[in-house]
């Protein structure tokens, strides 16, 4: 369990008349604690404690020498204990007289250290005392918080306790108010006095089997008031165990009043929440499909870019070949008949180049056809994306409508609670 108390923040009073000893141990204490006050005699120490106590800034620990001027340590602690009998104390002395020891015992001194001071010994004793202070402070904080919660619970809830046989041992004012019975009429009786005849015996059988097994039972059911009127309560019954946490000692039931109309609204609200959950699942599925679709479109776009780049490269090669062909044709026209054989060889080269050009044109046509197919597919995917976006907007609108409806129900429930509170006041 995480604590709310920091040991370093404990407030310490150290009383010592010897200046050297006071300075040495004072430095040691200030390294361990953030708030350390030093005094040179018992009278100053008592006044310091009294002043802090009156300001509600009391010390958490007192460390004192015994033999001091004006007022010795035992006399100072005796007066301090009259103001605060529970404040932890530690005595430091060079003397071990029996009378002093007996008086220290009678004052319930927490620790006794002999001079010369061994810092390791005092450090160990401080660890033990501070641990006790730590747990005591946490206990007080938690006790205060628990009492606050119990006070709030007693004001807002309908509370009762029963023994192991089911006889009522405690009821709060809310229980008496809603049932119409007085405390005297209820103590020692069972809850059968408010049991509604329409609630089956099997219902209560299941309830008892649950709590007798050490489990918490929760549910809503109908009760019967003393005047014959009915009321519904949302109930939680908790088994209370002994200190060993093995044996059940009693049961405590905590109830909150609800009306039939509120029950119906809760059921409707529950169904709306289930619908919203279902819509959220569908939206999650559509979002996933949307992401997949965008990914496929991105891949298609990358493919189209790659094909377009390749088509441009092919077109450049085709133009280069046509340019070479035109230049070749112009040069051939200038040749005479004597160069016929040479022209024939070049004609053969031209045929080869022309065949290569036709092959490139064929490849280019295939790429152009593939590009057109990809454009068609892109158009289809764009339509799918537009349809998905339209569905997404419709689903968001339906969710917003449901949220508005849920908000209206919550406002109605709050209004019903306020009306019921007003009726209970009158």
TrEMBL record:
Modified residues (4-aspartylphosphate): 65
Residue ranges that the Swiss-Prot or TrEMBL entry lists as coiled coil: 276-338, 364-419
CDD domains: PAS, REC
Residue span(s) of domain Response regulatory: 11-130
Annotated PAS domain residues: 142-214
MF (Gene Ontology): phosphorelay response regulator activity; transcription cis-regulatory region binding
GO BP annotations listed: regulation of DNA-templated transcription
CC per GO annotation: cytosol; protein-DNA complex
Pfam families: PAS_3, Response_reg
Keywords, alphabetical: Coiled coil, DNA-binding, Phosphoprotein, Transcription, Transcription regulation, Two-component regulatory system
Protein name: Response regulator
